[in-house]
């Protein structure tokens, strides 16, 4: 058994699965002693689970696990002093090491009702001058047509409208002439 078990790769979440199984065992043990099938009893049993497991203290509040939260950041650095990066670099450069820096730790107190206590361990390191923008900047800019362009286009369209009306009048007035009749004046009138 030990030989075959040692071949398996350890996973980060194995300890959490272990604690979950112990929580379920604790729940079923308490559920068997009370013969009630009420959701409030279920919730009370879950909220009263409290033991030291493989991942630390195991407690639940409103169906979620209460535990420590550790926020870490991968930092590419050439030189580290007191877990802060003094010379940042890109990973492709020589002499650049990728290290994990602990940023925040949130820890619950003994009472479940108190909010978690947040400990700042190291400052967050940003590439550039600060945090990246979380949205694009929108600039409202009014678009307009220059007055000279508007006047020239209006004059050209007015001339075109006048010419179209003149050609239509010419077609109607001289429709009996041979050259106009051969050029299909009805179709020309529809086009105009």
TrEMBL record:
A GO biological process held by the record: gamma-aminobutyric acid signaling pathway
Q: Where does the chain cross the membrane?
A: 145-172
Matching entries from InterPro entries are given as:
GPCR3_GABA-B
The superkingdom of the source organism is Eukaryota
Cellular component (GO) terms are:
G protein-coupled receptor heterodimeric complex
Keywords recorded for this protein, A-Z = G-protein coupled receptor, Glycoprotein, Membrane, Receptor, Transducer, Transmembrane, Transmembrane helix
Where does the UniProt annotation place the signal sequence?
none
Q: Name one GO molecular function term.
A: G protein-coupled GABA receptor activity
**What is the protein named?**
Receptor ligand binding region domain-containing protein
Where does this protein come from, organism-wise?
A: Rotaria magnacalcarata
Phylogenetic classification of the source organism: Eukaryota, Metazoa, Spiralia, Gnathifera, Rotifera
